[in-house]
């Protein structure tokens, strides 16, 4: 689930905290969110942490549809395909980690051999219904655990809008690297970790100076953020998890997995505003990328 990119609220300075402002975090390694061993959902203080979107699958399947949602279609899939550089490989075999209902598979050239992995059975069922190509397979499994098939020698691996929905992204990267051929390419599309963190970033309007800017409340700390997919249902709404990590962690994990970044793109929203605030809203959209695309090669 991605937070909307529309203006949210007018700026109101917060009153100072009781006891003074929080002191800055000292330099040094960031405390992790304690990834679970083996990748299996485990009970935690707030109950089991199952990162699958099974409970939200009906909503997500509908919002993505056959061709992808607005951002899939206009920004993310075209960007991911550009980074994948499929045309440079004679026989493309692609592993899609956390594939959801398979929207990436349906955007690939017909000759690509494809394996998609996801934790949600219902999203996989939808993927199989929408895509019956004999060279495409959809497998139930944990992208951060032991993959439930032996297939290897992939020329490409991808993780589209899902790295921030798994609890152990470093394991997902290691899985991608382990299944790639040397020289194989892993690409990711993420919500931009600097500008688009659920509940921690927002648009703010400064009507005096007529600018809209991006407010970032927290960035360096790793965060685990619960998102209600249907806020009107209150506590009964299905929840999904977002795991935020700063850029430095992403690069350290890629490096540790033997994956060397050779491409980075920052993608802005291509929505357009109309009305009296259009100028400042459109200018802000063009300045602050909402998505990050990364490409890394296995050495
Ligand atoms: C935002 S959806 C993205 C799905 C798809 N890539 C797309 O762009 O539509 C996140 C997906 O991650 C899957 N997921 C979460 N944790 C997972 C894990 N550990 N292993 C495999 N899939 C996982 C969810 O079930 C969900 O389908």
Question: Layout of helices and strands, plus pairs?
Answer:
Elements lengths: L42 E2 L2 E2 L8 H8 L5 H15 L8 E5 L15 E6 L2 H10 L5 E5 L13 E7 L8 H11 E12 L9 E6 L4 E6 L6 E6 L10 E6 L2 H10 L2 E9 L10 H10 L3 E8 L1
Parallel strand pairs: 3-4, 3-6, 4-5, 6-7
Antiparallel strand pairs: 1-2, 7-13, 8-9, 10-11, 12-13
Helix pairs in contact: 4-5
Bound molecules: S-adenosylmethionine.
The site of S-adenosylmethionine has 21 residues, from strand 4.
Structure description:
This protein is of the alpha/beta class. It is 21% helix and 27% strand. It is built from 6 helices and 13 strands. It has helices spanning 57-64, 70-84, 121-130, 169-179, 247-256, 278-287; strands at residues 43-44, 47-48, 93-97, 113-118, 136-140, 154-160, 180-191, 201-206, 211-216, 223-228, 239-244, 259-267, 291-298. The protein has a 7-stranded mixed sheet with strand order 5-4-3-6-7-13-12, sandwiched between helices. Strands 1-2 form a two-stranded antiparallel ribbon. A two-stranded antiparallel sheet has the order 8-9. Helix 4 links the parallel strand 6 and strand 7. Helix 4 (169-179) packs parallel to helix 5. The protein is globular, with a radius of gyration of 20 Å. It starts with 42 loop residues before the first strand and ends with a strand. Bound molecules: S-adenosylmethionine. S-adenosylmethionine is lined by residues 51-53, 64, 98-100, 103, 117-120, 123, 142-144, 160-162, 165-166.
């Amino acid at each position: 689930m991605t937070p909307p990119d529309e203006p949210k609220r007018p700026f109101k300075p917060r009153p100072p905290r009781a006891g003074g402002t929080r002191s800055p975090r000292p330099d040094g390694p960031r405390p992790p969110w304690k990834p679970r061993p083996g990748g299996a959902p485990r009970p935690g203080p707030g109950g089991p942490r199952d990162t699958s979107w099974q409970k939200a699958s009906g909503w997500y399947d509908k919002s993505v549809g056959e061709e992808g949602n607005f951002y899939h279609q206009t920004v993310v899939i075209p960007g991911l395909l550009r980074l994948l550089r499929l045309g440079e490989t004679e026989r493309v075999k692609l592993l899609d980690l956390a594939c959801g209902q398979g929207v990436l598979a349906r955007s690939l050239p017909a000759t690509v051999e494809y394996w998609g992995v996801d934790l949600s059975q219902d999203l996989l069922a939808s993927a199989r219904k929408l895509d019956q190509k004999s060279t495409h397979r959809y497998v139930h499994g944990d992208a951060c655990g032991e993959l439930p098939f032996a297939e290897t020698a992939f020329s490409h691996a991808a993780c589209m809008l899902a790295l921030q929905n798994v609890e152990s992204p470093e394991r997902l990267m290691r899985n991608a690297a382990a299944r790639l051929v040397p020289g194989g390419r892993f690409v990711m599309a993420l919500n931009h970790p600097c500008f688009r963190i659920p509940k921690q970033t927002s648009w703010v309007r400064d009507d005096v100076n007529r600018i809209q800017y991006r407010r970032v409340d927290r960035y360096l700390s790793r965060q685990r953020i619960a998102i209600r997919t249907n806020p009107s249902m209150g506590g009964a709404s299905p929840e999904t998890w977002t795991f935020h990590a700063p850029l430095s962690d992403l690069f350290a994990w890629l490096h540790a997995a033997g994956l060397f970044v050779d491409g980075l793109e920052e993608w802005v929203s291509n929505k357009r505003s109309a009305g009296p605030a259009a100028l400042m809203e459109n200018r802000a959209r063009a300045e602050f990328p909402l998505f990050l695309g990364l490409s890394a090669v296995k050495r």
